Each structure stands twice: as structure tokens, then as C-alpha cells.
């Protein structure tokens, strides 16, 4: 006797089952008496607007329309006979009967879960350009088919990105041109807009996570030494401006250590780093014994971590503190990129390119006056500054750059475009004030925040890509890493009276007048002319 599985795979049986299935649906939807009395449906004329609407169940209607659309071929029953819902309770019975019929058919004629999921994925993929159908499908699957609901939700994100791409394509992207890392000085690159959700080709590959470090507003505002772009080069290298509390800079709770824990240099080299370190340690012992300089890690085995921060003394000083302590210091190099396109509370209305020029000038000054005989701690910090990138930003800066405003999605695309094909890049850190970073964290391709779940100051987040088996591509995830300790605000500026000069002169004159006259003074002469 033929098994059920063999019978289902038989061509004649397949044709017969399909024919019976279509006849069953066609009979069900053409039986006017059953549709009216049992399921509460009436023939509907679009020109007739007198139909009562109070009893209509919108959710059930969506499921009804969607499931029938899936079964219809060409000009199906929905196009031939249109009916409206008149009785909500009876119509819900109709939906339940259809669902039971479909589930019963699946039980009678079993289909592998892999094949079923593949068919659903194909159907969902075909609706990416039809956002209305996607929402209908999502609503129809919400209660009974949670896996399909998840796949539909992800596909809706795809459709949203496609809509975003069409809108951004009309913008003047030439305003956002930036030099490409590693090219000649004349090369510029237009940031790419994501073509669909989680496209690792446009953004970063799966080995490169992104980190967001949220800070408070500029702590130098209103202090005795406020943050000024023309003095950014001098101020940025002073520890007093760093936001990170001194007690956490060199501990396991330091942001630099917690971030580098998630970076594995082994993913970026073919050399077994564990054996490499053992051999290197042996060479160091031999070098010390022979009185020779100890060998260092080959640059080919180092990975780069880029820190993007705005031109603010507090942000740059904080970036230096991130570099101080890391989990894999021998194999991780930090590159600080002060980005004039990132905004802060202290530089919202000024030309931030002046701050970059100030940093470059300060770097040149320190290099010129540097002597090998004494070790300047600032030189270690200056080495972390990506000087080449700063100079190219200044060189390519135009008036249009000053006036241009980038959307959060464009900001992310612009930065990621610089590193998508860079092999040594192991991670990117976006350091900035919470008001600036939160819109970036909620922009595509990242998932939006839950209501009431917005991040806050002094919080750390990690973003990475993980494979989605339903969409068959990588999608971005976001993880909360915790908080870090911040410093207390700088002392505020002391108020100075408007007429302080006059007051000081009067007080000085009064003190002098109270002094006894000298015996040599001539009578009638003034003791002092003020």
C-alpha cells in the first residue's frame, strides 16, 4: 500500500488534491446562503455606502483578505464576488473554520518544516515592495503563527529601508563627500545608502562590531576655562577635561577594557597569536639577557580600533582615557578621529573645523620641541591622533560642508563606508553626547528603541551583526554593556561685578589716603596723585 508521503509526491495525486482544494474554496465562497446565514457576509457593491460599519472586525477582515489572496489565482473569487462583513461574531467563526481547514490539511498531508518555511520566506520576499500586504500578513500571523509574524516584521524593516533609500536618493549627497581612507588627496567618496536591512556589504562585515559611548554635555561649559575651538589643541590633552572618573581609567570597569574584551585580533590574521606570543616572550627574555632592546609585536598582527569623537576638549580627553587601558593592548591600536561633522553642546553654532586646525598645530609644536632625553606623556597621546585623516578633512573642507546637515542614517553610512573593506579595522567606537548619539543608535539599520527605553548618559552599548535564518542575511543587534563612572562637573565661573575696575581703584585710593603723611611732604601738596 502506498504511504501518505509517497502518495503526496505522486504527480496525479498532487493534481487531484489541488483541484479538490480549489473547488472546495470556490464552493465555500460562492454559497451565498452559507456566507450570509452562517458567517454573516453580504454581497458588497463599492458604490453603495449605506452598509452599516459598526459590526466590522478589522483584524479578522485583514486575515480574511490575506488568506484568500494567497489562494486566488489570476482573477480569483475576490475579484468576482465582493462581500462585506455584517456580523462580527459569525465572521470570526468563518475565519476560525478556514484556519482549522488549513491546519487540518497540513496534518493530513504532512510537509517538512524546512519546505514550509522556505515557501513562507519566498512569499514574504515577494511582498517587500508592498508594505500594505506585509502589514496584513503580519497581523494575520500574530496569534497563530509567531515564526511567520517575526519574518514579516523583519521584512517590514526591509521595506522601510527601501523607502528611506528612495527619499535620500534625491538629497544633494555631494555635500557629504569625504576622502576615502588610503587614497590620494584628491579622491573623495560619496557615502552609500543602505540598500536593505542589515547589508554587511554597505556597512561593516560580521567581524567588526560597533560601540556607542554616551557622555554628558560638555563639562567645561560655564567653567573658568570653557571649551574654545581655537584652543582645542592645548585643552584636549589636559586630564581635567576627561569625563571618565580617574578611579576607573585603569581598572576592569574602564570603558577601554570593556570594549576590547569583545574584540578578537585572531579573526584578522592567519598567524596563531597564542603561539606567536609564546615565541615573542622567549625572544624578549633572550634580548634582556643579552642587553638588547626587547622585540615588539609585528604591526601586521595588530588590529585597529577607530574612535570617532566631536571637536570638544572633554570628548577628545575622554578618547585618550579610552586608549589608556585595554584587554589586548599588544595587539590593539587606537586611532582617534576628531570629526567636525559631529555636534556637541559647546560647538553647535561655531565652525568646528577650527578645532581640528588647533589640534594639528599643537601636534606640530610638540613634535618640533620633542627631545628624546625626556619622555613627554603627551607624545603617547599624540600618537593616537589620526593626523592624516585630520589634515585631509581640513584640506577638503568647503563652505558647503559647514552648512550641510547629515541625517542619522547618513552619518552612519558615511563612517561605515570608510571601513567596510579595511582589513585591520576591528571595531568602531562612536563617542559623543547622549543627545547626539541616541538618534544614531535608533537609525537604520539598527532596530528602534522600545517605548520608554531610550539610553542615557554614561551608558555603553555594543552593536553587531548576527545571521537571521528566516531572512537568510545578517541583521544588526544591540546590547547594553552597562555604565561607567563620570567626574563631577568643573567648578563654575565666579561672577565678576560689571564695575570691578572702578571699585578696585576706589578701594586702593582709600587705603592710601588713610596712611599718615610723610614728614618730608610740603604743606599743601597732595600726598598722591591717582
From TrEMBL:
It holds the Pfam family HeLo. It comes from the Eukaryota. Residues 10-136 form the Prion-inhibition and propagation HeLo domain. Residues 486-530 are annotated as: Disordered. Coiled coil: none annotated. InterPro entries: HeLo_dom, HeLo_sf. This is Prion-inhibition and propagation HeLo domain-containing protein. It comes from Letharia columbiana.
Amino acid at each position: 500500500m502506498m504511504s501518505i508521503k509517497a502518495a503526496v509526491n505522486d504527480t496525479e495525486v498532487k493534481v487531484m488534491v489541488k483541484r479538490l482544494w480549489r473547488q472546495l474554496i470556490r464552493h465555500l465562497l460562492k454559497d451565498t446562503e452559507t456566507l450570509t446565514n452562517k458567517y454573516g457576509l453580504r454581497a458588497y457593491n463599492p458604490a453603495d455606502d449605506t452598509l452599516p460599519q459598526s459590526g466590522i472586525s478589522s483584524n479578522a477582515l485583514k486575515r480574511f483578505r490575506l488568506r484568500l489572496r494567497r489562494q486566488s489565482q489570476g482573477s480569483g473569487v475576490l475579484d468576482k464576488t465582493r462581500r462585506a462583513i455584517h456580523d462580527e461574531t459569525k465572521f470570526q467563526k468563518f475565519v476560525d473554520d478556514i484556519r482549522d481547514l488549513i491546519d487540518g490539511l497540513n496534518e493530513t498531508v504532512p510537509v517538512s518544516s524546512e519546505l514550509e518555511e522556505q515557501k513562507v520566506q519566498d512569499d514574504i520576499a515577494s511582498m517587500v515592495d508592498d508594505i500594505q500586504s506585509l502589514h496584513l500578513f503580519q497581523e494575520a500571523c500574530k496569534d497563530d503563527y509567531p515564526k511567520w509574524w517575526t519574518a514579516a516584521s523583519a521584512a517590514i524593516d526591509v521595506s522601510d529601508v527601501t523607502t528611506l533609500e528612495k527619499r535620500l536618493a534625491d538629497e544633494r549627497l555631494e555635500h557629504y563627500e569625504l576622502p576615502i581612507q588610503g587614497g590620494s588627496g584628491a579622491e573623495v567618496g560619496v557615502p552609500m545608502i543602505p540598500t536593505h536591512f542589515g547589508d554587511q556589504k554597505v556597512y561593516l562585515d560580521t567581524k567588526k562590531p560597533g560601540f556607542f559611548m554616551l557622555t554628558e554635555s560638555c563639562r567645561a561649559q560655564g567653567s573658568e576655562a570653557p571649551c574654545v575651538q581655537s584652543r582645542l589643541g592645548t585643552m584636549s590633552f589636559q586630564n581635567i577635561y576627561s569625563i571618565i572618573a580617574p578611579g576607573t581609567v585603569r581598572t576592569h570597569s574602564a570603558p577601554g577594557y570593556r570594549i576590547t574584551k569583545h574584540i578578537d585580533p585572531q579573526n584578522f590574521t592567519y598567524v596563531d597569536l597564542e603561539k606567536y606570543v609564546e615565541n615573542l616572550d622567549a625572544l624578549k627574555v633572550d634580548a634582556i639577557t643579552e642587553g638588547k632592546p626587547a622585540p615588539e609585536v609585528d604591526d601586521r598582527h595588530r588590529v585597529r580600533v577607530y574612535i570617532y569623537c566631536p571637536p570638544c576638549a572633554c570628548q577628545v580627553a575622554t578618547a585618550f582615557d579610552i586608549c589608556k587601558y585595554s584587554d589586548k593592548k599588544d595587539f590593539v591600536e587606537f586611532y582617534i578621529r576628531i570629526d567636525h561633522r559631529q555636534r556637541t553642546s559647546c560647538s553647535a553654532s561655531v565652525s568646528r573645523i577650527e578645532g581640528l586646525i588647533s589640534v594639528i598645530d599643537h601636534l606640530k609644536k610638540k613634535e618640533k620641541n620633542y627631545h628624546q632625553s625626556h619622555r613627554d606623556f603627551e607624545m603617547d597621546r599624540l600618537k593616537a591622533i589620526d593626523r592624516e585623516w585630520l589634515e585631509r578633512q581640513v584640506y577638503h573642507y568647503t563652505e558647503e560642508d559647514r552648512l550641510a546637515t547629515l541625517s542619522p542614517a547618513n552619518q552612519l553610512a558615511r563612517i561605515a563606508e570608510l571601513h567596510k573593506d579595511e582589513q585591520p579595522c576591528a571595531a568602531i567606537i562612536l563617542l559623543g553626547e547622549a543627545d547626539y548619539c541616541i538618534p544614531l543608535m535608533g537609525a537604520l539599520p539598527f532596530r528602534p528603541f522600545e517605548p520608554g527605553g531610550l539610553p542615557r548618559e554614561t551608558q555603553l552599548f555594543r552593536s553587531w551583526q548576527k545571521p537571521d535564518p528566516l531572512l537568510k542575511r545578517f541583521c544588526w543587534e544591540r546590547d547594553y554593556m552597562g555604565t561607567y563612572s563620570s567626574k563631577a562637573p568643573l567648578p563654575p565661573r565666579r561672577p565678576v561685578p560689571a564695575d570691578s575696575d572702578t571699585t578696585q581703584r576706589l578701594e586702593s585710593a582709600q587705603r592710601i589716603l588713610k596712611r599718615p603723611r610723610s614728614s618730608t611732604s610740603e604743606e599743601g601738596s597732595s600726598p598722591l596723585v591717582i
